[in-house]
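Sample log: UspA domain-containing protein.
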Amino acid sequence: MAEVVLANGGTEKKVMLAIDESEYSYYALTWVLDNLKESLNKSPLLIFMAQLPTKNAYTFAASLGSARMYCPVSPTQEFNNSVKENQNKLTLALLEKAKEICASRGVNAETLTEVGDPQTAICNAVEKLNINLLILGERGLGKIKRAILGSVSNYCVQNAKCPVLVVKKP
């Protein structure tokens, strides 16, 4: 875990960066490496990524003339396993890319992933790992979209058990 030395010389703190596949997450990562590198010398930066749970039923739409309602179709176990496997491969590849970016800048990083809703998975990881600073990239949603869709960064600011730094892309 990354630790930040306090200005008063006190104890060191764990730092976690939560990412997803967006450019905003990678901007936040480069911002951390540019601005907090000196503070991250003693231990690795923890990079976290939540994997959305796969759904057990998929809805297939028919053309308007051939069907009047949409019927959920239960996928086979093989299909579910394939979706989970592909999602896991993508997550691990994104985490590996982030780890390589850190290594290229001289920062040691550890990666962690959990399956679940991103906002609750991030807050749960913060609590389980005793994180002292959570860093997120702001997705750039406008006020209306944020109100309708919700915002992971807003949820974490309100519910994480530590200070949260939200990095905005200019």
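Observation: Residues 3-10 have pLDDT under 50 and may be disordered.
Observation: Residues 3 and 14 are 4 Å apart (CA to CA).
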